[in-house]
Amino acid sequence: MGYPWEIPRNDISYPIKFFGQVAEGQGGKREWVGGENVRAFAYDVPIPGFRTKNTISLRLWSTRVAAEDFDLAAFNSGDYSKAGEAHANAERICYVLYPGDATEEGKQLRLKQQYTLCSASIQDIMARFKERSKGALNWDALPSKVAIQMNDTHPTLCVPELLRILIDEEGLAWDEAWKITQATVAYTNHTVLPEALEKWPLTTFQKLLPRHVEIIETIDEQFMSFVAGNVEKSELESKIASMRILENVDLPASIQSLLPPKPVREKAKKVKPVTDAAIKENGTKSPVKEAAAEEEEEEEEEVVPPKPASTVRMANLCVIAGHKVNGVAAIHSQIVIDEVFNDFYQLWPEKFQNKTNGVTPRRWLKFCNPELSSVITKWLGSEEWVLDTKQLSGLRNFADNKELQQEWVNAKVARKAKLAAYIKSKTGYTINPNALFDIQVKRIHEYKRQLLNIMGVIYRYKKMKEMSEKERAAKYVPRVVMFGGKAFATYWQAKRIVKLITDVAATVNNDPEIGDLLKVIMVPDYNVSVAEVLIPASELSQHISTAGMEASGTSNMKFSMNGCVLIGTLDGANVEIREEVGEDNFFLFGAYAHEIAGLRADRAAGKFQPDPRFEEVKSFIRSGVFGDYDYNELLGSLEGDSGYGRGDYFLVGHDFPAYIECQDKVDEAYRDQQRWTRMSIMNTAGSYTFSSDRTIHEYAKDIWEITPSPLE
């Protein structure tokens, strides 16, 4: 069954081409011919607003081929697979979004998906623009009518595709097409992780999209010429190496001529082995004398390392082509200009901006938390806060009011009861609704440090086991620690972390000695609908990424908006959330972003001394108390000083002592329910600035340069 709100638009379709070759047509025009042809068909999903009289459409695409592409002759001869091969290839594009790309086939399929979205959407935009021009077609007006925001690097192919259509199909000259393209597209960076700044093998690109490679090569060469005219000659070679689009590709002659000639390397001579006999004969270490004459004439040999693979750096293409580049949190945008794209920033400082992310209060507060929304509306005197979140700051005036605090607690209790029932139905575990609900839900990744969280849980459990019942009750408040999220199919370390969480849960949740004092839950099949149950019931939420590695995060905003207190590092939007809600209403721990590089260098130099409590947790895991699974691969990543998968790159060991001490402060604060409720109210009050309304207005004003058009 299909999605009922997905409306097929069989009247709207566009051709999509893969493979083939580029030929020279009349007048030197480049023509992309041959290859595999499919069609992208439109589907529209209506998007209603809040208290609006109109809807907008989200346009999606599906791929298929024409009926005549069915090979009837092959079918009649019994070769059924070949008969439907074209149909299968086309439909495969939309089967699974972002398939694994460990194989060449996976890379091709993923690139096909990205190109299909870009090409179909660009063709659709162009068709609408031409239709609305009513015969007076002026391509220079395109940037004033169309804004294309490349959200991360996945839609980067918008750039060469827009150029291809303007040049090859509409007949524009390169300079004019490039000017229009640059004024139309902008780029939002969402990550500082090197592996997430997409690079595609040039060979895959050349095979699948040959015309686009030609266009990218031209952009690359022209950009390098621009760099050559704007940087010191002494820096030119290093700047080109870091900034050009094509990595590990020979420089064009026009650029090579601008660089100083490289010195000729002396060839390394092959040295013969030294033996004890030679030492005795000569009294010194010398090569063995051989009788054969050809040995004396042996040619010199040079060891040439293999050339690294040529790649297309999509992020560099985005920065070069986009008229604006933005990060999604203040600290992230600073890292973007200081580290990730510093060379580009020095060239074009005016391009770079910050646009801190936001979330919609309609879905993430009013809809998913009606109990708390009613309390807020009562105390603010109206429901205007739903469209003007600045009014939430007015809750600060009532944060110490006992009546509000009691109503606030009642709303939270109601949502916790619903979550407890949900957990029971999905996992079979019964949890105490009066316990502290501690939640970390996000993609499973080493930098997000679910491993730090579960190791903290293990330390807590071990200490509980060493105490008497009375000591446990005095030291710890009852707590339910919940995890949710998905690990990428081939990300084995992330899957090991999930395995550890579930093993710990199986042990802790069935320990009668601990009972309701500690429970661990891995919420199955986490998605947005599940988040709408979890977030309103949360009391503590963990946003504990290695500082400087999280671009922004938006779940931290959703939790804070629902009166959840955060524990976290100074990373991503945590920095701004802490400023808005108040330092006393945020549990902070861990290294700062500017310290990370130095700490990693110290680790590589063997200067790091792990905390005994951290070593205690690792030994406890290895003892087999959580089952017989071999966790050496996982724990080994936290050990050693350097090497692939070693050296604790994400600084779990460094931050562990501060983390468990900060968790002790959480227990202390939660015991004082009046204090905790005040902290909760202050979080909701301070979340007003993290509305997506504010974010969208900033994009509209500063990047898209459009003004509101109110509907009467």
Automatic annotation (TrEMBL):
A molecular function GO annotation: pyridoxal phosphate binding
Reactions it catalyzes: [(1->4)-alpha-D-glucosyl](n) + phosphate = [(1->4)-alpha-D-glucosyl](n-1) + alpha-D-glucose 1-phosphate
Region (Disordered): 281-307
UniProt feature, compositional bias: Acidic residues: 293-303
Keyword annotations of the record: Allosteric enzyme, Carbohydrate metabolism, Glycosyltransferase, Pyridoxal phosphate, Transferase
Superkingdom in the source lineage: Eukaryota
GO biological process: carbohydrate metabolic process
Residues making up the signal peptide according to the UniProt record: none
Cofactor: pyridoxal 5'-phosphate
InterPro entries: Glycg_phsphrylas (IPR011833), Glyco_trans_35 (IPR000811), Pyridoxal_P_attach_site (IPR035090)
PROSITE patterns: PHOSPHORYLASE (PS00102)
Positions carrying N6-(pyridoxal phosphate)lysine: 558
Pfam families per UniProt: Phosphorylase
Stretches with biased composition (Basic and acidic residues): 281-292
UniProt-listed Enzyme Commission number(s): 2.4.1.1
Role this protein plays: Allosteric enzyme that catalyzes the rate-limiting step in glycogen catabolism, the phosphorolytic cleavage of glycogen to produce glucose-1-phosphate, and plays a central role in maintaining cellular and organismal glucose homeostasis.
Family: Belongs to the glycogen phosphorylase family.
Name of the molecule in the record: Alpha-1,4 glucan phosphorylase
Biological source species: Physcomitrium patens (Spreading-leaved earth moss)
Gene name tied to this protein: LOC112283391
